[in-house]
Amino acid sequence: MARPKVTVVGAGNVGATTAQYIVERELADVVLTDVVDGLPQGKALDLLQAGPVHGYDCRITGANDYEPTAGSDIIVITAGLARKPGMSRDDLLLKNAEIVGGVVTETARRSPTAILIVVTNPLDAMAQLALRRSGFPKQRVIGMAGVLDSARFRTFIAQELDVSVENVTAFVLGGHGDTMVPLPRYSTVAGIPITELLPKDRLEALVTRTANGGAEIVGLLKTGSAYYAPAASVVEMIEAILKDKKKILPCTAYLEGEYGVKGLFVGVPVKLGRRGIEQILQITLSPDESAGLQRSAAAVRELTDKLGI
After folding, report:
1. Fewer CB within a 10 Å sphere, N or C end of the chain?
2. Which residues on neighbouring strands pair with residue 38, listed in sequence order?
3. CATH class of domain segment(s) 5-143
4. pTM value surpassing 0.70
């Protein structure tokens, strides 16, 4: 049986680390593409040569064009400019829209049945652009944000309570960025809501740190942004899809009335399987949480309006 095929567009830190995690888990053969001559080929060859040590047989190919991507099961789009200190996600908007638009047009044509996972920021607007450009059904265009935001929230909760991260589940809804909506009462440690375990002020501090999670790392690195946790988050989604796990994860999905949001990509809990998004789960929100989600949606709408999509 042929291995699944995943294309990762963009051989920078997020893309290359995503490719690394995919082959290390033997999930698929990988095509790594980038516009920089030699970069994807060099990283692919390096990863291939780690195979005998790690014990994986997955093929990994580097390319500067899109021909080798044909027939992919999943296409991960990480290509774009990274955020620099002091740069807002909106500053990235127009430049990255141009890059992502081109990538989607080229890859969707060659892999018409693929599932698109969008990682490039500003994430929610780029997913909307990918849906329009690809012409794919909404189930097959997904944004990676909530898995990463939840992972950050889970990390901080585990540190605060000195418990295993494996015991912690966390829920984060909304757009990726300052307007995300962490949901403490749906977040648990071994099934116990964290609202029972942490005082309100500590919870609020963790929520704020989660919302600023990306900026905190940008500030520390100074010349780059996060990539280990974003790549791990993408690969959790890829595994859920390729193995048809029906795993419930917070992802950026196109809403048509769910949560009172229409015609927009926003982060919500979804069931991921071989067909992509197989179900959007609607949970009951308090008035405050609902207002937060509407604010988040409004911030995404502002970006999509700027792009005219």
Report:
1. N
2. none
3. alpha beta
4. yes
